[in-house]
Amino acid sequence: MDIDAWIWWLIGAVGLGIPLVLTAMPEFGMFAVGAVAGAVTAALGFGVVAQVIVFVAVSVALIAVVRPIAARHRAGTPALATGIDALKGRQARVLERVDAEGGRIKLAGEVWSARSLDATRVFEPGDEVDVVEIEGATAVVI
User: What are the C-alpha distances in Å from 34 to residues 29, 43, 46, 48?
Assistant: First the structure.
């Protein structure tokens, strides 16, 4: 039984797809696409040398182009802060004197209890403060 070269390339593509699924390494998928390109080249009647060249060229091109784009995309998307994490680093206005014991601030349109991070610092009404932490329902400010 003589199997055409393009079928071998497709078997190779499936074989490369298995570790892609098991390891979640996208490089295997890029090699699988290169193997499919080799199968198309074989189906068009080109020789083994042309098939291997197409396989290598497509695989290398995908790795050279797709990996940097994916890395930029992965690194460039900041995590969306929600809840109290979104309040950290925000500015607030002091409504009632804030010291190490407590006080009140207006933060994101709401009135919060607050305390000073530095026990020696006191903030008077009208002062702008920065929220560094949220502890329960109390904003810790500097």
Answer: 9, 14, 15, 14
pTM: 0.53
Cα dihedral 18, 24, 25, 30 in deg (nearest 10): 60
Helix-then-strand count for the chain, H and E: 3, 5
d(C-alpha 90, C-alpha 122), whole Å: 19
Alpha-carbon gap, residue 131 to 85, rounded angstroms: 11
Report residue 67 as tokens.
Answer: 């990996």
Pairing of strands 128-135, 104-107: unpaired
What is residue 25's three-state secondary structure? coil
Q: Per residue of the chain (142 residues), what is the pLDDT tens digit?
A: 467 999 999 999 999 999 988 887 888 999 999 999 999 999 999 999 999 999 999 999 999 998 888 888 877 756 677 888 889 999 999 999 999 999 999 998 999 999 999 989 999 999 999 999 999 899 999 9
- Alpha-carbon dihedral angle through residues 22, 27, 30, 35, given to the nearest 10 degrees: -70
